User: Fold these one by one.
Assistant:
Number 1:
Amino acid sequence: MKCFLLLLAGFALFAQQPPLDLDAVRAEPRADKRYEKALDYASEQITEARKQYQDGKFDQFRHRVADVVEGVRLCDQTLRGTGKNPSKNPKHFKRAEMRMREILRRLTGLEQDVSVDDRNVVTKVKSSVQEIHDNLLFDIMGRRK
């Protein structure tokens, strides 16, 4: 019985691992899984960027922060590629919007934690993610002109 529980716990941990790279996310054939993995990837990049910054690896920090917006863009492209109307079928769009809001909060925290010299990198990425988030939200609300 203990072996079964350990095996089950191992599968649960493996299933929750974030994607290693954006190419692995792009390879996901199902759009509903691809957009979630893209957001997982973006969120993981924030975590990694914070670690790289704390370790003094500033080039890797900048690279990780730039990868956040790439993950969010892939999510947006995937959702829009489904051809569904966000205001009439908002389920996946709203889930993505809420996750993007969480990513924006984490980017704000990162922005406040880094030095003034490195803040501009995070600010640019945050504004790009904010723009994608706002467009998605306007589409869900159906008020976009």
Note: Residues 20-141 form one domain.
Number 2:
Amino acid sequence: MTGTERKKRRILRERRRAERRRKLIRNRIATAMAVTIVTLIIVLLCMKFTARETIAEDKSRFSKKYYKSYMIEYGDTLWTIAEKNCGTEWKNNWDYIDEVMRINGLHSDKIRAGYHLTLPYYT
């Protein structure tokens, strides 16, 4: 082997080592970025659910839930009752209807005039 051949082989080995190092560094950076993104997503989700619980705790701390009796009139539906009585404590009318059904032991949305419902409200 001549000196130039040895030199070429040494240069090739150094290039391969340098390329392996670059690949290793790229893989480490990609892994670190993936871990960082996953961590951020988890933190944001935790913050979102914690904020909801805090808002609910604040509402329950400053307002009290009461119940009133409501006599169902002809033409009433759970939706129309929710539109009249649903406050800001519920996210939407469906949540209010679900609670009314749970409180009154209803398994269907069918109601009849003349019967009474127990309705929740906050003050």
Note: The mean pLDDT is 86.
Number 3:
Amino acid sequence: MTINNSRNVISIKLRQLIVTIFFIALFALLYASSLIPTPLLGLSRNEIGIGLLVIYVLFILYHFGLDLNYIIYSDEGPNIILRYYSIKIYSQKHHSVEIPKKDFQRYEIRRTFFWLKPELILYLNIKKGTGRYPPVSLAALSGKQRKALTESLNRYVKKGK
């Protein structure tokens, strides 16, 4: 089985672009035209501008905190393969995890960032015991893709360990 979240990543990036354009347009309307009357609801142009800026910064921090990843998962062949990279603007490091199915021990999904970010942690058998890979954010996967991923990994979990 192969899981690829490229459609989700494209829609997330498109949504970020649209929101950015929307806020730029609001700022332009606010400061470069007289279409928005001031005071509006008792707020001056600067107060409205600061409020819009705070909302936009919270939107950006929300997406930054989720640490969204482009993910390709495959369990075809003798290895479990997980390739991912962050879709943050300045973070383009590619990561690849390849675990032989016979060495895969278990996995864990935990939630962080105010319970909004599911993270996958993979464990494998090594000579000294159990090895652990760094957490991978699954926030950019759809619920259906997350379910398919956990069902796939459940097939390879070692029972009784």
Note: The helical segments are 6-32, 45-66, 143-154.
